[in-house]
Design goal:
Elements lengths: L1 E3 L2 E3 L13 H29 L1 H25 L8 H29 L4 H16 L1 H10 L5
Antiparallel strand pairs: 1-2
Helix pairs in contact: 1-2, 1-4, 2-3, 2-4
C-alpha cells in the first residue's frame, strides 16, 4: 500500500477504502456557497437600509442558517471520489443529509431562542438563499455551456 497526500493507492489483493477528494464537487459547492453569500449580503444590506439594523441582523442570520448546514453537507459528501469509494460516498451522503437536517433545526432553535429578530425578514432571506441552492443546476449549466443563440 502506498499513500501520497490525500491519495491512497490500494494493494491489489486488499480491499481498503480510498480517500480521493472530489475536487470538481468541492469547487461547485464553493461556487454555490459564494452565490448564496452574495445573495445574503445583498438582501442584508437592503434590509438594513430599508428597515434598520435589526432587519439586517435577521437577514444575515437567515442566510447563515441556510448556508452553514449546506456547507457541512458538501464537505461530507465530496470527501470521497471514484467508483471504488461508492459505498463511502453513499454512506456519507445519508449521514451528511441527516446531520444537515439536525444542524438546521439546531440553528433555527438557537436563533429564535437567543436572538431578537424580524421573522419575516429572516424567513424571506432563508428562502431566497435556499432558492439559489435549488436553482444552482440551471445557473451552473448555463455558465458552463453559455448561450447558444445563432
Amino acid at each position: 500500500m502506498l499513500i501520497l497526500g490525500d491519495y491512497l493507492i490500494i494493494h491489489p489483493r486488499k480491499k481498503i477504502g480510498i480517500k480521493v477528494d472530489n475536487l470538481q464537487g468541492k469547487e461547485g459547492a464553493k461556487r454555490l456557497l459564494a452565490y448564496q453569500l452574495v445573495v445574503t449580503t445583498v438582501f442584508a444590506a437592503a434590509a438594513g437600509l430599508l428597515l434598520g439594523p435589526n432587519a439586517c441582523k435577521s437577514a444575515v442570520l437567515g442566510g447563515l442558517v441556510c448556508m452553514i448546514p449546506q456547507a457541512y453537507f458538501a464537505r461530507k459528501v465530496f470527501k470521497y471520489s471514484g467508483a471504488m469509494a461508492a459505498k463511502k460516498i453513499v454512506g456519507n451522503f445519508y449521514k451528511g443529509e441527516a446531520l444537515k437536517i439536525f444542524l438546521s433545526g439546531l440553528l433555527f432553535t438557537l436563533v429564535f431562542k437567543f436572538s431578537i429578530i424580524m421573522p419575516p425578514v429572516f424567513f424571506a432571506v432563508y428562502l431566497v438563499t435556499q432558492l439559489v441552492f435549488w436553482f444552482s443546476p440551471l445557473i451552473f449549466v448555463n455558465q458552463y455551456y453559455g448561450s447558444k443563440s445563432d
